[in-house]
Amino acid sequence: MNNSIQFLIILICSLNFPFNGDATTIRCTNPEYANEQLIFYSFADPISNNNKVAFTLKFNNEGTSETSIQIDEPLFTFSEFGIYRGMLLLEPGKTVDLKLPPLKKKSFADQKNPYFKPISFWIFSNSGQMLNDKISRFEQKLNELTDKDFNALYFQQSKSAFNRLKTGIDEAFPETQSESFELHKKLRLKLIEADIFRLSPEDYSAIFQPIAPEFWEYESFKTLLDKTFDKQLSFSAKAIGGGRVSEAVARENIKDLLVFISEKYQITGKMADLVLLKMLHDGFYSKEFPEKAIKNMIADKHFTNHQEIKIRDAASNIATKITFLEKGSVAPAICLTDINSEKCCTNNSQEKFKYIIFADVETLICQEHLKYLSRVNELFSENLEIFVVLRDTERSGIDSFFTANKVPATILVDKENKTIAEYKIQSFPQCILLNEKHQVVFDDAKAPLNGFEQQFGKWLRNELFMRQRNQAR
């Protein structure tokens, strides 16, 4: 092989496999976190609200942890631990020593409250010189200036007060060479300005146009994107001249919708495609548009074959999200240990329908629903198999409840809450009905005390009748 061919091969490889820089290292020493594990996530995309694991900090007996990840651009990550939501913007090739707050775990009431929100903060480093430190100080200064002129800003909508706020921020944080910080600063100020002056999305939407895809998974970008385009497809369809939007959706006309976005929001190119995906995502959940049309557009090659990988990823994530556990879809098998420490899977048999109840046995409302399963089993035992998937709690409480109440169900314990997370369970109880092939029967299965026996009974009579008639043919 001559030198020219070797050079050509090296050149091709370098174009297809970009060089990865030095690893980013995350370290922490805090005795209070001994034997704890903090999982840090990043956004899978700025629209679907799906997360992916970025890295994990596993602390040893002495409270020390260290890990490394390979990134070629700044990466926003976050972790929920105890009552906190710690945010961390990592820089490629840097080493950061985290300075974590005293560990404070959720109280019993916090654990049972489906509306509990952790305290969000930007994590400091021990050096105080990292990008995250600067963002943390910026947020503190922004809160200080906002609180100082709160009435003038939010009640009087004073432009002079807002200008004072901007001047104070500029003086405390003059322009730097950090593109990540400057973008965070710009987007955060625009978010406050939009709130104060009740700006319409089209008044400031052009701010998104120059933002490169590498910044799309930033917290500040996602927050402003959500605020700006939330329910905009529905709003635009109901506005004067909105028939144009409704017709474009019904006809699955992506081109017309992009023209509309360009005209109204002054956004084109990749950013317009991202905005359209956001609008289609929200439009699907509004139930105001043909679901099939929105699904078809999201699955269109305009998005799935897009030159920008982050557009392709967003479209894929949204498509997966909107079809997850929809009527007729195959639900993921649940394989957990039951209260007798035996492994059990919900798809082991294909003889009966499967009623799955996600519950927290420590709450009174769940206890009452679980007790009523005796009645459900009495009515439908011939055709129905019942599974209870429990949020992990004190084992003594689980055993005592099910010993006292002979619940006719297979009791599974989700010790790591992975199944609960996979099924996107936000509160308890939540229920799912599957057929013998593990396919979802209802979009919204009722809980035992909320009318399941009427819902299932009516459906079962018709289903069995139709099966008998088809067999007779």
Strand residue content: 15-25%
Helix content: 40-55%
Counted up, domains total: 3
Shape: globular
Radius of gyration: 26 Å
Question: Major sheet: order of its strands?
Answer: 11-10-14-13-12-15
Structural class: alpha/beta
Average pLDDT metric: 91
Low-confidence stretches: 7-20
How many helices in DSSP terms?
20
Distance between the termini: 71 Å
Overall number of strands: 15
- Major sheet attributes: 6 strands, mixed
Protein name: Redoxin domain-containing protein
InterPro entries: Thioredoxin-like_sf
Organism: Draconibacterium halophilum
Layout of helices and strands, plus pairs?
Blueprint: H1 3-16, E1 24-29, E2 37-43, E3 51-58, E4 64-69, E5 75-81, E6 84-90, E7 95-99, H2 108-112, E8 119-122, E9 124-125, H3 131-148, H4 150-155, H5 159-172, H6 179-196, H7 201-204, H8 219-229, H9 232-238, H10 243-250, H11 254-265, H12 269-286, H13 291-298, H14 301-304, H15 309-323, E10 335-338, E11 343-345, E12 353-359, H16 364-371, H17 373-380, E13 384-391, H18 395-404, E14 410-414, H19 418-422, E15 430-434, H20 452-472
Helix pairs in contact: 3-5, 3-6, 6-8, 9-10, 11-12, 12-13, 12-15
